[in-house]
Amino acid sequence: MLVLLLLQLMLMFAGGLPKVFWYYENFGLSWDGISHGKVWQLLSYALLHGDWFHLLINLFILWFAGGRVVQMLGQRKSLEIIVAGVLVGGLLHLLSSLLRVTGYGDSYLVGISGACFALLLALTTLSPHTRMGFIPVSGKNLGLGIVIGEALLWLMHPSLSLPVLSSLGEQVVAWGGAALFEISHACHLGGALAGWCLARRVLAPVCAST
Fold this sequence. Notes:
This protein has 210 residues and is an all-alpha fold. It has ten helices and two strands, in the order αααααααββααα.
């Protein structure tokens, strides 16, 4: 968390996005960058953020979900979940760019949201019957809602031209919700699925012994 804060401060004092676009171009994730051999982007994009609001939301989730997951699984397994969330989230984002989804192929993905969603789903999977703090639902229902919500928002993107779903997305845009499709729901979904799978793997020996 401290590294993310220091990087954002460094970029801010360097003049912000217009002055340090080189960093986003080389360390943010894009299909153009990967196709030119910049494979480090699959991890480095998580270290950059678009603005302070974006960073603070992610830091809150890292603190809220990450702290609990570390208590249950330890630092090593928690780090595995974070890395998996970043990688799988980034790969699903790249898949969307290959499908020529508007906003995925013509911009650079930044932010540690994939890891945040991985930690959230790991937490809700490990504690399915526990209420998630200030959120008045069980972990199981919260995790299910996150996966369904992100999957729907991804598939509703108007550029995918899917029957019914894309029409719903166009209606959301008409109602003033275009900003919803400026977020990489593919990255969120990929991270969430990675966290769920790793948490299930941790639980598998427990389930087998009971």
